Amino acid sequence: MLLVVAAFIVAFVLLLYMISPLISPKPLKLNGAHVVVTGGSSGIGKCIAVECYRQGAFITLVARDEVKLLQAKKEVEKFAINDKQVVLCISVDVSSDYSQVESVIKQAQEKLGPVDMLVNCAGTSISGKFEDVEVDRFKKLMEVNYLGSVYPTRAVITTMKERRMGRIMFVSSQAGQIGLFGYTAYSPSKFALRGLAESLQMEIKPYNIYVTVAYPPDTDTPGLAEENKTKPLETKLIAETSGVCQPDQVAKIIVRDAVQGNFNSSVGPDGYMLSALTCGMSPVTSITEGLQQEAFVEMYDRQRDSVFSCSWPSIKTVFGMAALGAASLTIGAYLTQK
Ligand SMILES: NC(=O)C1=CN([C@@H]2O[C@H](COP(=O)(O)OP(=O)(O)OC[C@H]3O[C@@H](n4cnc5c(N)ncnc54)[C@H](OP(=O)(O)O)[C@@H]3O)[C@@H](O)[C@H]2O)C=CC1
Ligand SMILES: CCCCCCCCCCCCCCCC(=O)[C@@H](N)CO
């Protein structure tokens, strides 16, 4: 009897894995697509631009400093795969004035066509103990990291909805998944992106637009070098547990996840675990992802249960089973509707 039940469970899980591709979005074709990258003149943003360009995309780089923009344009252009491809540069502060952001995005769309993918990567960080960070820096970080992602997104969303296609990417951080010593100003600005992304995804899923939030670890960029000049030792030591990545490696993963329409994008084993542990109610874009999260959370929860010396199955298990049941019903409904 037990064997039959076990066989049923295994068969059910296998079935879920097999039909998983059916509920996942159709991948975006980067060849010929128009990709706008804010913060595209340096670090992770520049590498994202390169990664898209080498897959045939047309690129608009957005940042403030024109010299850095032109330099980046030259670097990106080296990776052309055909002679039609174009790299456009736009100098604007994404955080200061919405109407300005709206008008430059309009210009870019007139030149290179409607935006297929927007990558919100412009951002900056400040670390330090809460009482040591100048008070106006809290506002500054919310303006650049949060509003600087709201404005470009707002400027592209109407056209994307009309065309019923598109991708929107927010570059958060592992410090946008957990709060860390020294990041009282930075972490909240990165947490905010997730709230925005989750809400927005609910609104635009019916329009075939997919949102991705990326949570990179420390990455070797000019931005990190600048941050390290004044970073508290505690912050450095905590961040080091997750290692330092190369920006091209991070960009590859981010672009792959955006193309696939994955809501969540993380780097490395630590990133993967952090994402599973902090998944909350974030949308899952594949059944596989949902099952893995469930398994992970369950595993860690068990450990917590043992700490609190509680030996019966946690309430989470019951909810987990209910969720699986609900998921299979939804899939059933979806398939019969097709
Ligand atoms: N490096 C890391 O360790 C990690 C970084 N991140 C995030 O990734 C993103 C990129 O980081 P990284 O590559 O290190 O950063 P860099 O400092 O190397 O590059 C930042 C880019 O954003 C642009 N930018 C900054 N402020 C504005 C603004 N107000 N308006 C328009 N453009 C702006 C910069 O150009 P300009 O100054 O000319 O405007 C530059 O192109 C950031 O959001 C960061 O928080 C997340 C996790 C880890
Ligand atoms: C069981 C799970 C184990 C996971 C270990 C968790 C370790 C947390 C490390 C957090 C690193 C935060 C990096 C922030 C990078 C950043 O955004 C700035 N550098 C930007 O400039």
UniProtKB/TrEMBL annotation:
Location(s), subcellular: Endoplasmic reticulum
CDD domains reported in the protein's UniProt record: KDSR-like_SDR_c
Enzyme Commission numbers on file: 1.1.1.102
Gene Ontology CC, one term: endoplasmic reticulum membrane
SUPFAM superfamilies: NAD(P)-binding Rossmann-fold domains
This protein's pathway: Lipid metabolism; sphingolipid metabolism; Sphingolipid metabolism
Gene Ontology molecular function terms on file: 3-dehydrosphinganine reductase activity
Entry-linked Pfam families: adh_short
Major location category of this protein: endoplasmic reticulum
Domain of life of the native organism: Eukaryota
Reactions mediated catalytically: sphinganine + NADP(+) = 3-oxosphinganine + NADPH + H(+)
One of the GO BP terms on file: sphingolipid biosynthetic process
Keywords linked to the UniProt accession: Endoplasmic reticulum, Lipid metabolism, NADP, Oxidoreductase, Sphingolipid metabolism
Role this protein plays: Catalyzes the reduction of 3'-oxosphinganine (3-ketodihydrosphingosine/KDS) to sphinganine (dihydrosphingosine/DHS), the second step of de novo sphingolipid biosynthesis.
Family of the protein in this entry: Belongs to the short-chain dehydrogenases/reductases (SDR) family.
Name used for this protein in its record: 3-dehydrosphinganine reductase
Source organism of this protein record: Sparus aurata
